[in-house]
Amino acid sequence: MNDRRDEEIKVVAASAPKRDKRLIVLIVCLCVAVALAIGAVGGFIGHAIGKSNVTVIHSQDGNVSQLSQINERSIVDVVDEVADSVVEIECTVLVQSGGGWFQRPTTYSATSAGSGVIISADGTIVTNHHVIEGATQIKVRLRNSEEHTASLVGSDQSHDIAVLKISAENLTYATFGTYELKVGQTVVVIGNPLGKLGGSVTDGIISALDRDISIDGVTMRLLQTNASINSGNSGGGMFDLDGRLIGIVNAKSTGTDVEGLGFAIPADVALSVVTEILSA
Q1: How many whole angstroms separate alpha carbon 61 and alpha carbon 162?
Q2: Catalytic annotation present for 242
Q3: Domain range holding 175?
Q4: Which distant-in-sequence residues (6+ apart) come within 8 Å of 244 by Cβ?
Q5: Active-site residue among 85, 112, 159, 160?
Q6: Catalytic pick from 85, 155, 234, 240?
């Protein structure tokens, strides 16, 4: 019995190479096909990573465990794109003081400052009503320090929006972003804090979407942000990371114990008011 088994085993072992030649060829072909397929998939993923900023996250054993999409650009990208659309505004106003029994009030000129955002290449600018209220002269300074005298197209005190016009061409302008915003979304604020620091950039998040805030006796529903906002920022722009104008800055809560409370008029409200003013 043992001899017969040995002979059978020898026969199988001897004939295996004949069948293996075809089997080996088949296996090699399959390996090549699989390698080509893996290469194609790898190339596609690599292309997708390059095109869509996809980050591949690996587990400890080296296997791909997650793909996360990163669409947001950096703050530097936003500033490069939109900073030239934000301007400094300086107003001359007449102020009266004194007066009383047998005395006439004294009238003198004073200046106030704010910010604005260019919304058309030919020099249409949106700002706050309270920035230009009572102004006898309005000057606009571009980011390149070029100065222009502006005319008032119209304003809406109830929404704190005003529209100015300067004589210029081919200006960088901002595009309104009227879409659903989210609490926690990153924002970039550009303006002229203190009336002396034009082009200042701060960043933060949207802290709330619909705060009812009373300013000078008028209640408005505003965006709340923790981005640094100071006097002079009024009329400046709040942008998202796609460079869209999502708000017009118009207020900051003040007080010795108050920090990180700034407010802006939502873009859809501002755009609606601007459209009405321009079509009047």
Answers
A1: 60
A2: no
A3: 77-279
A4: 174, 175, 176, 177, 267
A5: 160
A6: 234
Catalytic residue among 130, 159, 200, 240: 130
pLDDT in tens, 79-108: 999 999 999 999 999 887 776 666 777 888
Pair 193, 180: CB distance under 8 Å: no
Looking at the fold, whether 153 and 239 belong to one and the same domain comes out as yes
Domain boundary among 69, 102, 128: 69
Active site residue 130: yes
| 148 among known catalytic residues | no
Q: Are 150 and 190 in contact (CB under 8 A)?
A: no
- pTM score, two decimals? 0.72
Residues 111 and 19 in one domain: no
How many domains, the chain? Answer: 2
Range with top average pLDDT, 5-14, 27-36, 235-244 = 235-244
* Digit-coded pLDDT (tens) for 125-181: 999 999 999 999 999 999 999 999 999 999 999 999 999 999 999 999 999 998 899
If pLDDT is split at 50, 70 and 90, which confidence band does 62 have? very low
